Amino acid sequence: MHKNERSLPETVLVSIRGRNARKAKSEQRKRTDNTEMVVASYNVHKCIGVDRKFDPERTARVIREISPDVIALQEADNRFGDRAGLLDLARLEMETGLVPVPITGNGKGHGWRGNVLLFKRGTVRDVHQIKLPGLEPRGALVAEIDLDEKPTLRVIAAHLGLLRHSRSEQARAVLDIMSSADERPTLLLGDLNEWRLGNRSSLNTLHTTFGPLPPAVPTFPSSLPLLALDRIMANRHGMISTVEAHDTPLSRVASDHLPLTAFVRL
């Protein structure tokens, strides 16, 4: 039984009270050794910051701050028109070593329905572009990556819908992906757009594969994070050791979401 049945005002109060403790913990945590990976999820808000400035270079600087081994980006393409990608991926690769998982049929876009998955030091074995159910055009990008000197990792990068009913359907679609796959280590990264905890959460169905879920860490809005919209989950107990918001002066301005990071051991 899930006991976290907080209302929105209660969730906001708990988040405000715990923010300083989370920031102190984040400042203390460092990568311990080469067997540990840094993974992240970041809704870049089409590279528009809370100051309403379009600044892809600022977004790239936040990614460089994180220094991830794997990162899922949401809203990295224009939503309308030619849906062109917004980042300079060639420069990002030169500066960070991150390369995008290749996809098809995206025209000028970086990703699949706004989802971009970047990684370094490995080879992509397989990629699937999944259309998620719901009224909005949402999708999931599923990649199997042979990481250098590590087991093959499956990553599901997703951006779920704004409507609760759609999110429930989309969460079940993610489980359908897992039910037809083997048992290799799997991470689910993305903006899942769900702040509710406990029985009212549209993500409850994920417990069967990704539970117990890691702590929900507030990432939205970036200037005063109150809601845990972004999540990182694993299908194996003990894979994720720490989940925290990347809360810096730059990240608080660069998007309306803070990046979410996790330390992962395969």
UniProtKB/TrEMBL annotation:
The keyword Ubl conjugation does not apply. One of its GO terms (biological process) is GPI anchor biosynthetic process. Pfam families: Exo_endo_phos. GO terms for cellular component: membrane. Transmembrane segments: none annotated. Keywords: Endonuclease, Exonuclease, Hydrolase, Nuclease. Residues 40-257 form the Endonuclease/exonuclease/phosphatase domain. It comes from the Bacteria. One of its GO terms (molecular function) is endonuclease activity. This is Endonuclease/exonuclease/phosphatase. It comes from Mesorhizobium metallidurans STM 2683.
